[in-house]
Amino acid sequence: MASAMVNVTASVLDWVSLAFDAPTKAVVFGVPIDGHLVVEVLLVVVILFQLTRKSYKPPKKPLTEKEIDELCDEWVPEPLTPQITEDMTDEAPTLESAAGPHAIVNGKEVLNFASANYLGLIGNEKITDSCVGALEKYGVGSCGPRGFYGTIDVHLDCEQKIAKFLGTPDSILYSYGISTIFSVIPAFCKKGDIIVADEGVHWAVQNGLYLSRSTVAYFKHNDMKSLENKLEEVTRRSKHPEKIRRYIVVESIYQNSGQIAPLDEIVRLKEKYRFRIILDESHSFGVLGNSGRGLAEQCGVPIEKIDIITAGMGNALATDGGFCTGSVRVVDHQRLSSAGYVFSASLPPYLASAAIAAVDHLEENPSILANLRANIATLFNELSDVPGLVVASHLLSPLVFLKLKKSTGSDKADMHLLQSIAKRVLEEDSVLIVATKRSSLDKCPLPIGLRFFVSASHSESDLLKAATSLKRVAALVLS
Amino acid sequence: MVRLTYQIAFTTLLSYGILFVFGKLRDLFDKLLDWSKSNDPQGYAPICYGFQDFYTRRMYQRAKDCGGRPIASAPDAWLDVIERYSNDNNKTLHRTERTTKCLNLGSYNYLGFAAADEYCTPRVIQSLKQYSVSTCSVRVDGGTTKLHTELEKLVARFVGKPAAIVFGMGYATNSAIIPALISKGDLIISDSLNHNSIVNGARGSGAAVQVFQHNNPSHLEEVLREQIARGQPRKYRPWKKILVIIEGIYSMEGELCRLPEIMAVCKKYKAYTYLDEAHSIGAVGKTGRGVCELLGVDPADVDIMMGTFTKSFGSCGGYIAASKEIIQHLKRTCPAHLYATSMSPPAVQQVISAIKVILGEDGTNRGAKKLAQVRENSNFFRSELQNMGFEVLGDNDSPVMPIMIYNPGKIPAFSRECLSQNLAVVIVAYPATPLLLARARICISAAHTREDLIKGLEVISKVGDLVGMKYLPIGPLNHKAKEFSKLELIKIE
Lengths: 479, 493
Hints:
The complex is a heterodimer of chains A (about 475) and B (about 500). Chain A is α/β, with parallel strands linked by helices and about 475 residues long. Chain A folds into three domains: about 20-55; about 95-120 and about 365-480, Aspartate Aminotransferase, domain 1; about 125-365, Aspartate Aminotransferase, domain 2, CATH 3.40.640. Helix content of chain A is about 45%, strand content about 15%. Chain A has 16 helices and 17 strands. Chain A has helices spanning about 1-20, 35-50, 65-75, 125-140, 155-165, 175-190, 205-210, 225-235, 265-275, 295-300, 330-335, 340, 350-365, 365-380, 410-430, 460-479; strands spanning about 25-30, 30-35, 100-105, 110, 150, 170-175, 195-200, 215-220, 245-250, 275-280, 310, 320-325, 390, 400-405, 430, 435, 450-455. With about 500 residues, chain B is an alpha/beta fold. Chain B has two domains: about 1-35 and about 45-105 and about 370-485, Aspartate Aminotransferase, domain 1; about 120-360, Type I PLP-dependent aspartate aminotransferase-like (Major domain) (Aspartate Aminotransferase, domain 2). At the A-B interface, helix 3, helix 4, strand 5, helix 5 and helix 6 of A face strand 1, strand 2, helix 3, helix 4 and helix 6 of B.
């Protein structure tokens, strides 16, 4: 076998060398054709032939109809909602009367600390009368957006009233409290703008920031040093800072912690770095300041320095809806480009007339603010020594926020503890307080806690009773 | 379907072009004359850039008095429009004390509950005295009253689903619910002409969004097949779930959605469906139960049914009706339920009373009469307009009828001329509709009497002749037979 292979190889080699060394057999055009020239020409021809061939690409095969059918049959969607477990079926307490300081819940009378009725206007005679008049004249709904015959004279009166009360040129009404801020932010902030916001802002603000598609940077909750660093960083990083719109978004009283933003400090930083301020005053309008004009009055900052102020009217003013105020340019721009204003039905007229009556009442009776402040101070003092809980809110905030001294480590367990405290306080002592509930869509990193909404119409005995009850239950549950 | 001929398209574009040129010239003069003056303080970027509000300043401002007209009465069949005047070419409009009584063809008052009603208003006032104006609290804390639970049960029964949840604003219902159900890794397929609240909700959810041609079930099928086969674009994994969002009556077209065909497609491909019945609940269907009843679709097939109380029930707010599990889940996660002040109790009572009237549970047959009246009124008005030669969109039985105007010069002319003849109409142009397809939109109510409608028709006919809006030949025409358009309709984003 091997010798046959050797013989074949030898004869092939001989044949090749013969072809190479064959003497010149022909002379073409004066060029002698040697044997090796033939082989070289053959090689060149083969190379050229290969070069002209198309390169190999795997053929594109789009899915056939049958294959698409199979894929569609195979595909199984997830269920629309996750499995409902036992602990998810808690029902909220049902009110059977107005949500004043003493309300009837599930059949018995309770002390109500769950309504943000700061000025005690729920059940006020004058407001009820003006609403009855509005209902008889205008019906309930306004049957149309503001651009299509949904603008009723009470809306215009209400806007003028609020603007006059705050001292701004104009204001604009929205039909729902939380939709105010998440319509205002996308109306002014577009892609490419820069926003620096507090990390503890509530969901509606977060949603507005997300919808605006701007670049958002968060600073540590209510920490002015962190704000200054963030402003510095953001200004340094952007190439043409004067050409991009820049905003600082803060709340006056944070819903998630009860802290109050130091407005004078923020205004100083804003002027230094050339930012505009968007301030959400939902819980401070009608509460802070000597005459209830909000955080600007409280901190002694002229109202013109704050570019955009928004507020929900579902708190101190005991009505529904929201408003936004600022310079004429700011307000006019929103009338055409704010989604929640243009595409939604306008505020029912009776709620607007309730707002007018509420502002009137506040202007005529500034003493309710003194009552409210006294109540807040009393409750703050009483709650400063609850076992296992610590007061995290500012001492002027009508929203008294208590968080766990030592968290269990998991949000769910914390939630469970706080809710059991609230439940026991309601069942055993008939005091209605609430534990903050977070939606799964909420990205706020602040801890949850218990909230007390103090009203000007709470009496001192109410506050003492609530404090005693909480101390007793907290000692039982958290020990 | 809109029939946009080449002549109309050309003249409309020419008009817009002339307005654009004039606008630019004015901007140029503005810049030259006040180049040193600036409204914004040093170092701040302006709140609105030059071109962003060009349309507002130079085009919309010319017709600004046609929109946002204030009224001094309830938005019933006849209303009092407050007269306004302007000294500076519509830049600022000033109110006067004078009012004009006009026939109202613009408010969403399909069943006539807008003004004080003999059954509803006394009950609303009583609930106001009992529960006061607002609860000042969110639903999960201390804002749920007996009225809210009663309303949720009633809505669920009315619509035909096991459970329901109500919110204080229709717009927020869509923008807050969709992110609670859908998140990253899911797909939303929505009709190309869906309302802004749905678009915002879809965007806020973080899911991928695909659009299918308006009311076209075969295109929906194509999109579904392609998307399921292809999966997520960059990760090549299958979609976690797919939600198809459609509306019952499209308010800018006045047409009903092709619900049975779309439901069949969604069932075949296992996609979930979300039906927004803002304009159709209470207004269509034999007993007012919306497009499902009208088109013969079982409500149990639609996964999520949404609606608002602003249009047919004369109140405010919105609802979602779905299975018990979905509603339980929403009660725990939906931000509008956890963070927003609960719906005002008098408004809740208004809806409860209105639904009771519609169902006949108030002891009279006013509800049935109202439903029959609105259907009869809509069909009469639509056929008369079509006979006169107007181009009217929408299907029979729908109380919304847009009349095409197209040309920007005719839009304010129509509106102002109608107002001078005591007819209040609504005109819609860009950006709510495509640039070339401006229209006037009529909303018929059960409160309109036959005489009102005849007067309305007379005025519209006269003004239509004056302005030149009768694009089609006079006489009855079968619009459904010819469904084509000579120019492609592109929705301008």
